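Form P-L/3: holo structure prediction, ligand pyridoxal-5'-phosphate.
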Amino acid sequence: MTISTTRPTHNLSAAELETLDRRHLIHPHQRSQRTFRRVMVRGERSTVWDATGRELLDLLGGGIWVAQVGHGRRELAEAASRQMSELAHYTGFFEFANDKTVLLADRLASLAPDDFNRVFFTCGGSEGVDTAIKVARLFHHHRGQPDRNWILARHYGYHGATYGSGTATGIPDMQHAVGPNLPHIEKLMPPYPYRKEFYGGQDPTDFLLAELEQTITRIGPENIAAMIGEPILGGGGVVIPPEDYWPRVRQLLSTHGILLIADEVITAFGRTGAWFDSAPRGMRPDIMVTAKGITSGYVPLGAVLLREEIASVLTDGEGSFFHGYTYSGHPVGCAVGLANLDLMEQEGLLSQSLAIGDWFRAGLAPASSLPAVGDIRVAGATVGIELVTDQETREPLSPDLALAVADELYDTHGVITRNYAHVLVLSPPLVLTEQETDRATSAIVDVLGRLDAKAGKINPR
Ligand code: PLP
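OUTPUT (holo model):
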């Protein structure tokens, strides 16, 4: 097929787009076995359309936990357009700034817990996590403890794909064959109540606190800068910790002068029903990393929020902070971020997120007795359905079969979901309606009802 790529605006067919994609594009997390493509071209609220014109219900919020206010919101497009006409970019380096960056920093400080007064902008989550690691190490360095450079992280945690954030990520594929990775990162077990076998019959929090204490003793508290964790594990399968986990972890870390970094890249901005999920979980972090929902994914932006006490060590007196990205605090990103937060407030999307969670709980209830469904976890508009071959043994379903479930939902019902290993994940826009949730849950109950985990197949309708 000869395809002209010189047209000013394209009117390529779906097949032509797929061909060009295969020829030129490398996808994040590309798997060579997946030779077909799903090319999206338009979105409105919770619906997207692919290049063939097929209408799909987007239960993944732009495919990757963003799209809080839904697709196609004119208000955000106008905010971007206005800002591009006024001032597309001016750096935030040195003593420069632009008005929207200042306003968004102020707005974030007003939404965050009291002492989170300072904001450093990035273009996304991985840069934010790298920033947080540097900040933690620098903080101790400036206070005369340069050996405090170890970072505690957790298996199953997802923190990004750069060398810093990628090494902190507790998913081994991220570190495979690209080493040496960042040194001085130690992984702990995650809180995962459904996987009680991880804790040898002990209470999960007791087990994890003992492990944390032993690890601190082994490495030496005087060598540890910080611990990083997601309030609830996102990419690890929407895993919600026991209520006492974060308060007890926080307390132990404080005893040893170790900072706590909350990776809120998924959880902030209403995804679980709060502006910052670490607050209701009693995490009381020193640093919060955010991205994704800050602009509902309309433009790349991330923000690292620091407690005043941490930031002042870096920026006041003799402190210095030699770190930054060309697009830190990009005016268009910040203008869209402000408009996005306005919409979220005007439309009450935090409480809407909780309502969506309730609808999912009710709609998915019939699935809980299905043989392949081990656990259904809901945190606001965020759902993880843990699939197993057997409810008794809790043996995880093969990731390939979990992917087949997502494919069946897509192909048969036009519903977009994704498996993270053996967990089916949902993170819809926070404007999902009750009717759309019903459609989604009926589709999921149908497909899971036809899943024969033991035979390794999905029966036809
Ligand atoms: N942290 C968490 C919890 C994430 O889920 C992600 C991405 O999904 C990241 C960090 C990395 O963010 P980004 O992909 O924007 O670099």
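COMMENT: The CA atoms of residues 406 and 417 lie 6 Å apart.
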